[in-house]
Every structure is written in structure tokens, then in C-alpha cells.
Structure prediction request, 74 residues.
Amino acid sequence: ERDGWTCQLCGKPQIEEVQILGRRLAIHHIDYNKNNNDLSNHILLCHNCNIKANRDREYWEEYFMTLICSYGDN
Prediction:
């Protein structure tokens, strides 16, 4: 709910991901530790953005942590 059922990189809504690919948005683990299930370690991404975020992991981890921290500013 926090992410508005929208990819936090490209803005694709989950309904579009379901219609196009037949699947929901992915819950991406920001620190890449699948055992860390704290909400602050999760972000919604579409399939394409999730693949993108699995390269250059240090960059994306910092990017997403900054993004999540900015949610508290709103």
C-alpha cells in the first residue's frame, strides 16, 4: 500500500503489469537480503525494473534507501 501499487522506478501501475504480463509487481529487497523482511527493506518494482535493479547493486541499494527515507518527508 505504501508504494501505491505502482513501480517505484518507472511508475507502471500494478494493474498494467497484470494485464501485460499476468503477474503482480515484485517486492524488491533493497539490501538484497531476502531474509530481511522489514517494510523499510521492501519496494515495489515492475518486472523490467526489478531486473534492472539486480545489476549495479550498490547504486540501487543507495538509490532505494534514499527514496524510502524521503517517504517520511511527505
